[in-house]
Amino acid sequence: MHFVNPLPFLLDYGIFVPLFLRVIVSYFLLTTFLLLGKVKSEQTDPTNVTSFSFIENNIVVSIIRFCIPFIIVLVLVGAFTQIAAILSIIIFIGMSLLQETKLFPVGKTSFLILIVIAVCLLVSGGGHYALDYPL
Fold first, then answer.
1. Does pLDDT of 106 surpass 60?
2. What share of the chain is helix, strand, coil (3-state, %, to 5)?
3. Which helix (H) or strand (E) holds 26?
4. What pTM does this model have?
5. Which DSSP category does 127 fall into?
């Protein structure tokens, strides 16, 4: 049986989809990295208590902030895409558990969508335009 696609012109660009997904995940990892640095630098005032007050002394957040640039490069280039997708899922879950403040305006639903995108990268791999080493 042959199914008719309602949008047949989109099938021509099917090989670019993992590339777009990788760019989206790496962009939001970069913004997460920059916002974590911004929040950490603005926590010098002891009277300013937000949901990010634990970032100043937390070693786990420092380790995550150290690892995010490497994950960005892995996702963007497409090398070890499954491992980078698992690590980005963990980061997005952690960031979705934080409360939304004016310093970090991205909501929880955005991170849930990013988790779904990272799961798609985990299942599908890096795509045609990647230096992927599949697991």
1. yes
2. 65, 0, 35
3. helix 17-41
4. 0.74
5. -
